[in-house]
Write a structure and sequence with these properties.
Layout (H helix, E strand, L loop, with lengths): L1 E9 L10 H11 L7 E7 L12 H21 L2 E11 L1 H15 L7 E8 L12 H13 L1 H7 L12 H5 L5 H6 L4 E7 L8 H4 L16 E4 L7 E5 L14 H6 L15 H41 L5 H21 L27 H8 L11 H11 L4 E6 L26 H9 L4
Helix pairs in contact: 1-14, 2-3, 4-5
Protein name: Serine esterase-domain-containing protein
Keywords: Membrane, Transmembrane, Transmembrane helix
Family: Belongs to the putative lipase ROG1 family.
C-alpha cells in the first residue's frame, strides 16, 4: 500500500472550488511530481461547503469538510493508498474552517495514525472582523451578523457558540481547547496576510497583530524590502512606532476630483467619453445595486437559517460543540468545588493566565501625557480591538512555530482576491498574486 500526503484546500465566503484553481495548479506544478521516499501528494479541494452553504457558519462548514476528508481517506484506502501525512490550506473564511476541521479530526483520533505537516492560511480573519473608527465599519458591524447568517455572527464575534457564551473565534484560539491543541501539532504553520488594500480582511486580523504598521505606509516612513524571487512578498520591514506615525494631509478639492475613479471592477472601467455616461448613471445604478445586494443577502441569510434548523434537527453525529459544552460544564463544576473548599484560593482573586501585565497598574493615576494620548482621536487605520480579540492575538502569537508572510499589492482596489489569483480569466491583475502562491508551494513540506 503506497503512502499519500493529503493536502486539503478550503475556499472562502461565497466561494467554490474554482476560486482555488490557481492554488491547486501551482502546488501540483511544484510538488505534484515530487516524491519524498514513497509519499505522493494528493490534493483535495473541498466541495461540500460552497456558495450559499458558506453562510452556515465556521462550525457547520468544518463538520462538512471533516466528513469530506474522512470519505476521501476511505476512498484512497480502497485504491490501495494510505494517507500517512496531512496538510491543510485555507483562504479567507476557509482558514477559520480549517482551524475547526483539525479540531474535529483530532477529536476523532485522526492524528494518531496520520502525521500533521503543514497548516497554512491566506487572508484569513483569525480574530474575526475587527472594528475601526469609521462609519463604514460601524455599518458593517451592524449589518454583517444580520445579512450573513451564522457566519456573519461568528465573523463579528457576536455569537455565543460555547455554553459559556464565548464566540467561536475566541474558542478556536483557546490553548485549553482542542482546536488550538490540534493546531500546535503541525510543525509548519505559516500564514499569509495582505499588508495593504485588503478591504475584506484587514491586516490586523489576517496577520494576527494588535497594530497595523502598514496603515499609513506612504507617510509613516516604514522601510520595506521585498523577496527577489517572489514578487510582492515582503522579506523584511522596519516598523515605525505608532506615536511617531503621521496622517496624510487631506487632498485639495480639485485633486480629489481629478483623481476620482468610479468604484467598479477594472473590466467595467470606461475611457473618455464613455466614462461620462457611467458617472451620469451612477445616481441610478448605485442605489439599485445596493438594494439588489441587500435583498439577495437577506434572502440567502433567511435560507441559511432555515437550513441550520434542519441540520440541527437531523444531525446524528455528536458535534464538537456538544463535546466542548460537556467539558465547560465539568470545568464550571470543578471551579465551584474549588471555591467552596476553604483550603482553596478564591477564584475572584486569582490572576487570569495570559492577561495583560499592564492591568496591574490600572489603579494608578495616569500622567498628563497619558491622559492626552487617551483623549486623542484614534488613527483611522488602527483597529478598535476587544479584550477577547487581544487575547486571541496573544495566544496565537505564542505558538513558537508560527511564521508570518506579508503580501504587498499596490495599485489594486481590493487585494483580497489577488493573493490567491482567484479569477485570472476575468481579472488579469489577479495573476500578480502568483509570487505569493509560489512562496507557499516552495515552502510546503512534502
Amino acid at each position: 500500500m503506497s503512502d499519500v500526503h493529503l493536502l486539503v484546500l478550503i475556499h472562502g465566503m461565497w466561494g467554490n472550488p474554482s476560486h482555488l484553481a490557481h492554488v491547486n495548479k501551482i502546488i501540483r506544478e511544484v510538488k505534484g511530481e515530487v516524491e519524498d521516499g514513497d509519499v505522493k501528494l494528493e490534493v483535495l479541494v473541498a466541495e461540500t461547503n460552497k456558495d450559499e452553504s458558506t453562510y452556515d457558519g465556521i462550525d457547520w462548514g468544518g463538520e462538512r469538510v471533516a466528513e469530506e476528508i474522512r470519505q476521501k481517506t476511505a476512498d484512497l484506502e480502497k485504491e490501495g493508498r494510505k494517507v500517512t501525512r496531512f496538510s491543510v490550506t485555507g483562504y479567507s473564511l476557509g482558514g477559520l474552517v480549517a482551524r475547526y476541521v483539525i479540531g474535529v479530526l483530532h477529536q476523532s483520533k485522526f492524528f494518531e495514525t496520520v502525521q500533521p505537516v503543514n497548516f497554512n492560511t491566506l487572508a484569513t480573519p483569525h480574530i474575526g472582523i475587527p472594528r475601526f473608527p469609521s462609519t463604514f465599519s460601524s455599518i458593517s458591524a451592524f449589518l454583517g451578523p444580520k445579512l450573513l447568517s451564522r457566519s456573519g455572527e461568528q465573523f463579528f464575534c457576536v455569537d455565543k457558540w460555547s455554553p459559556r457564551g464565548r464566540p467561536l473565534v475566541e474558542v478556536l484560539a483557546d490553548p485549553d481547547r482542542i482546536f488550538y491543541q490540534a493546531l500546535i501539532l503541525f510543525p509548519n504553520i505559516r500564514i499569509y496576510a495582505n499588508a495593504i488594500n485588503d478591504l475584506t480582511v484587514p491586516y490586523v486580523t489576517s496577520g494576527i497583530s494588535a497594530e497595523d504598521p502598514f496603515g499609513d505606509y506612504e507617510k509613516n516612513g516604514i522601510k520595506i524590502d521585498f523577496h527577489e524571487e517572489y514578487k510582492h512578498v515582503i522579506k523584511s520591514y522596519s516598523a515605525v512606532p505608532l506615536s511617531s506615525a503621521t496622517t496624510k494631509e487631506p487632498q485639495r478639492w480639485y485633486e480629489s476630483i481629478r483623481n476620482m475613479r468610479v468604484p467598479l471592477p477594472p473590466r467595467f472601467q470606461a475611457e473618455f467619453p464613455l466614462n461620462l455616461a457611467v458617472y451620469a448613471l451612477l445616481p441610478i445604478l448605485f442605489p439599485t445595486f445596493i438594494c439588489l445586494a441587500l435583498v439577495r443577502l437577506s434572502f440567502q441569510s433567511h435560507q441559511s437559517r432555515g437550513r441550520l434548523r434542519h441540520l440541527e434537527a437531523q444531525s446524528t453525529r455528536e458535534r464538537l460543540v456538544h463535546i466542548i459544552g460537556k467539558l465547560e460544564s465539568e470545568l464550571e463544576s470543578a471551579a465551584v468545588d474549588l471555591y467552596d473548599d476553604p483550603a482553596g484560593t478564591p477564584l475572584a482573586t486569582s490572576r487570569i493566565s495570559g492577561a495583560d501585565p499592564a492591568n496591574k497598574a490600572s489603579s494608578t493615576k495616569p500622567t498628563k501625557g497619558q491622559e492626552k494620548k487617551s483623549q486623542s482621536k484614534p488613527l483611522p487605520y488602527q483597529p478598535l480591538l476587544t479584550p477577547g480579540q487581544l487575547q486571541c492575538i496573544e495566544n496565537l502569537n505564542n505558538i513558537p512555530q508560527l511564521k508570518k508572510e506579508r503580501a504587498f499589492f499596490e495599485g489594486v482596489r481590493n487585494s483580497h482576491a489577488v493573493i490567491v489569483c482567484r479569477d485570472p480569466k476575468m481579472f488579469k491583475h489577479h495573476l500578480e498574486g502568483e509570487g505569493v502562491l509560489r512562496h507557499w508551494a516552495n515552502h510546503f513540506e512534502l
